[in-house]
C-alpha cells in the first residue's frame, strides 16, 4: 500500500511529465470551454437582439431557423466533448501513465 505524504505530493508536482500534463490539459480544456461559451452566447445574443432571425420560417413551414440552430449547438457540444475524450484517452493518459511509472521507479529505487 502506498501512503501519499507531503513529500510524495511534492515529487509528483515536480515531475516534468506531470507539469506537462497539467499544462496541456488545462490549456485544452480552457480552449474548448471558451469555444462553447462563444457559440452559446452568440446564440443567446442573436435571440435577444434579433429574435426575428431565429424566428424566421424555414421554407414557409412551421419550423423556424432557431430549431436547427439549437440542435446544431447541442450536436456541437457533444462533438467537442468527444474531442476532449479522444485527447484525454490518448495524449493525457500517456502522460499520466508516465507520471505513475516515474513515481513507481522512484519509490522502488528510494
Q: What does it look like?
A:
There is one protein chain. This protein has 110 residues and is mainly α. It is built from 4 helices and no strands. Helix 2 runs antiparallel to helix 4. The radius of gyration is 23 Å and the shape is rod-shaped. The model has no long low-confidence stretch (mean pLDDT 92).
Brief summary:
84% of the residues lie in helices and 0% in strands.
Straight-line distance between termini: 16 Å
How many helical elements? 4
Low-confidence runs: none
Number of strands: 0
For the CA atoms, what is the radius of gyration? 23 Å
Structural class: mainly alpha
Question: What attributes characterize this protein structure?
Answer:
110 residues; mainly alpha; 0% strand
How does the SSE layout of this entry go?
Layout: H1 6-14, H2 16-49, H3 51-55, H4 66-109
Amino acid at each position: 500500500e502506498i501512503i501519499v505524504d507531503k513529500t510524495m505530493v511534492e515529487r509528483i508536482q515536480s515531475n516534468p511529465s506531470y507539469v506537462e500534463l497539467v499544462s496541456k490539459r488545462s490549456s485544452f480544456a480552457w480552449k474548448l470551454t471558451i469555444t462553447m461559451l462563444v457559440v452559446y452566447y452568440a446564440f443567446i445574443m442573436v435571440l435577444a437582439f434579433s429574435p426575428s432571425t431565429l424566428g424566421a420560417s424555414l421554407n414557409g413551414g412551421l419550423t423556424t431557423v432557431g430549431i436547427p440552430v439549437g440542435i446544431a449547438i447541442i450536436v456541437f457540444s457533444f462533438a467537442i466533448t468527444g474531442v476532449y475524450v479522444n485527447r484525454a484517452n490518448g495524449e493525457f493518459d500517456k502522460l499520466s501513465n508516465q507520471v505513475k511509472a516515474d513515481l513507481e521507479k522512484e519509490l522502488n529505487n528510494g
